[in-house]
Write a structure and sequence with these properties.
Number of strands: 15
Strand order of the largest sheet: 2-3-4-7-6-5
Distance between the termini: 47 Å
Low-confidence stretches: 114-119, 205-211
Radius of gyration: 19 Å
Mean pLDDT: 87
Largest sheet: 6 strands, antiparallel, barrel
Oligomer: single chain
Structural class: alpha+beta
Helix content: 10-25%
């Protein structure tokens, strides 16, 4: 099924964090790479996600979601910044998932539940940004969550601990590495009202040097 048809089907609009692996993606140790993702729409048959690496149509892979569990899947369609996964599972599992979705939808619509944006870490409305390194290289990234002191991302690049870089307009260092991404601690704590805009703001090219944001690049080089 393609995404256009799925958008016309009955599904739950819900944001649930997860991770996935894809064929032919491995880490330095030769183990399958894991990437973070987040659901946009979910049904008992398929899931539309925002993700850093879409894979190819027909790819078989495994996904895991904190609220749903583990699934065997395949890619049925691709969109900018995400893809549609078909769930290859049993009728009983679909029934359980349907019940879970009904409960989650009720919880989402319950005004007594505290808004997640009041928490220390929050999920941005725009899930994608750009990483800039001291050598001038840039990589797209998927934002897992943000706080005023740092951001967790998932990307094809695997920097070492302590690596200086900027995500969007915020400069920091890699502070932690985990299975499906890494955390960046900002050099300067940001204001809550501004941090989401700054993190999702992609570096602009400098006409003079033809590199992304020359002042920010110079700052990263001094930190190296």
């Amino acid at each position: 099924m393609n995404i256009e048809k799925f958008l016309k089907q009955r599904a739950v609009k819900i944001s649930v964090s997860g991770s996935y692996t894809l064929p032919n993606w491995y880490d330095a140790a030769g183990q399958p790479r894991a990437f973070a993702c987040r659901t946009r729409r979910v049904s008992p048959f398929r899931v539309l996600v925002d993700a850093p690496v879409p894979g190819r149509i027909g790819d078989q892979f495994t996904s895991f979601f904190s609220d749903f569990g583990k699934f065997d899947c395949h890619v049925s369609d691709i969109s900018p910044g995400g893809f549609l996964m078909e769930l290859d599972t049993t009728a009983q599992t679909r029934k359980v998932l349907s019940q879970k979705l009904t409960w989650l939808e009720q919880r989402e619509n319950d005004p007594s539940i505290q808004d997640r944006r009041d928490h220390a870490r929050f999920i941005p409305e725009v899930p994608h940004s750009t990483l800039l390194f001291a050598d001038g290289s840039t990589y797209p990234c998927f934002i897992i969550d943000i706080s005023v002191s740092g951001v967790a991302v998932s990307s094809t690049v695997e920097p070492e601990l302590g690596t200086p870089l900027s995500v969007g307009a915020c400069v920091g260092r890699v502070a932690r590495i985990f299975a499906d991404g890494f955390a960046i601690k900002f050099v300067e704590q940001q204001r809550r009202i501004e941090v989401e805009r700054l993190v999702t703001h992609a570096p602009k090219a400098s006409p003079a040097r033809m590199v992304p944001n020359a002042p920010r690049l110079q700052r990263l080089q001094k930190m190296s």
